[in-house]
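3.2 Worked example (two chains)
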Amino acid sequence: LHATGGGTPTLEVQPVAGVPVVESPYRNSGLHDLALHPDFARNQLVYFTFNKAGSPPPAQAAGAAPPRRESRVALMRARFDGRALTAVEELFIGESYNTSGSRIAFGRDGTVYMTTGAPFDEAAQDPASIYGKVLRLSETGRPAQGNPFAGRAGARAEVFSLGHRDHLGLTVHPVSGAVFNAEHGPNGGDEVNLILPGRNYGWPRVSFGRNYDGSKVSESPVAEGIEPPHLLWVPSIAPTGLTFYDGERFPAWKGNLFVGSGRRGEIPGTGGLERVVMNEKMEELRRETLLTDLHQRIRDVRQGPDGLLYVITDEDDGALLRISPAPLPAR
């Protein structure tokens, strides 16, 4: 988007050049998330996650559904001059797997946190797989110093936490530096989690959700050694991007967590924006759902440098929305 002199924003006609080409496009391929290096103003570095083609799918059996295409999630880096990406390089890439989206965020120590999904099997519980995890990497894509599984036999040193399903939101608290994700349960059991080193978040063995045929994922939604959700939604909200608000334009919202929602309870056209009020200990006080009258899927929410909230919708005719305070009534 571009705005001159504070005027009405308009969409740039030309897309950003230099984004890698998707090899034979398929579901979940291509670009997923983008983050600016903390020192972007000086070095112009941007980081993004990108799903590349994986191993060729096996031959389709007679009468069976087509096998899912595998992909390899990668962390990429490039320079951005305002028009194009240059010097694009691959910093990290995972093994071929039936994975989905990925989100990234910079920690306050300059490390890169990266989510990887694992909705279908036991990969999320396997420390030798990078899928179903939150990874913690250096800015060059190497395992970050102090990672909890480093040096452990049969484990990947990049792994920071495990037991995750599809997590399509990731944010770092602007004051404490705590890391939070937004994670899809199957049918219900959507979560926001406080991500702690070496902890297990349960998937696919423990969940508050049900399978899509209505059966329980687990007899109990809690178990010893499993981190409970920080926030929970039953029925599901299909959580997407999330951010903590710390601006000045909405004083009453300062410290609130905002979570995008694709749909509620598996019903199309019911997406919105969740506002969660927390106390100083990050404990939930109350919730409010916004933007439901749009009847659109919310894909992401971010705070802009102007202190306003920006929301993007995931539709055939999607939009970037700018949320600003309502004008005060005339006296």
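3.2.1 Second chain
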Amino acid sequence: MCALALAAAAANAQSFPARPVRLIVTYPPGALNDLIARTLSPQLASLWRQQVIVDNRPGGGTLIGSELAARAAPDGHTLLLVAIAHAMNPSVYAKLPYDSVLDFAPVSQIASSPYILITNPAVPAKSVKELVALAKTKPGQLTYGSTGTGGSSHLMGVMLGMMANVDIVHVPYKGLAPALTDMIGGQIQFGFGSYSTVGQHIKANRLRALAVTSAKRSPLAPDVPTVAESGVPGYEAISIVGIFAPAKTPAAAVHKLSAEIATVLHRPDIRDRFLGTGVESVGSTPEEFAAVIRTDMAKMGKLIRDTGIRE
């Protein structure tokens, strides 16, 4: 009987997925995370010989799509693509409609991307060290824009202010596009954005890149130093993208999904396509991705508690 059960489990794992897979994306069509999903989905569909349907469920600070995935049948046929907001939400929101840890099974980290600290070219600072020195001579006068209170680009500025011990002013916007418009126009002095969003403005000299927020220099901008090496030791913040399944999804299904997603992500052509959208492909084990999420939750949680940001 045990042998028959093992044989049945192996057969089920080999035939999985048995029907179309829904990949819930908590961002609208055209957003970076949507582009990542749409790059990955046809490759997985070809590998699995099943449709992989990208289901955009934006809104609610990613809560709408996340709750939908948390309540889905735990059979591996519904997946959730998440970004750094997943690690921040437990600390930003007083109450969530799901448990960010217990209601999800980590599958794989898909990609990572540093933010780039950019300024208006008229700002008399060509490095992070010079920007910090300028902020110290003008406390409460340098402004930075973000996608909104509690968002990742807001927290990048909070971290800079705390770690460099400078008084800088946060200006929240309803998205990065209007923040960049005001930065280019000189209404605000600096901010943070992904390479996929700000790269074109840097190349056109509309914005100046001072540093990347990752611990090491990024292949996306190899000539741009890190914030840490530019005078703020220990500064590190990256955007992560990964895939979850609902909790209680069978371990065999989770590991099969993880291994096959990694196979696709490690292909040179996919790596190049990801770099073209401004991110680096990863492809990790469920255990590795779980460790990344735990670390980010702890780090972002402390930062949010220390600053009193709360919805």
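3.3 Remarks
The radius of gyration is 21 Å.
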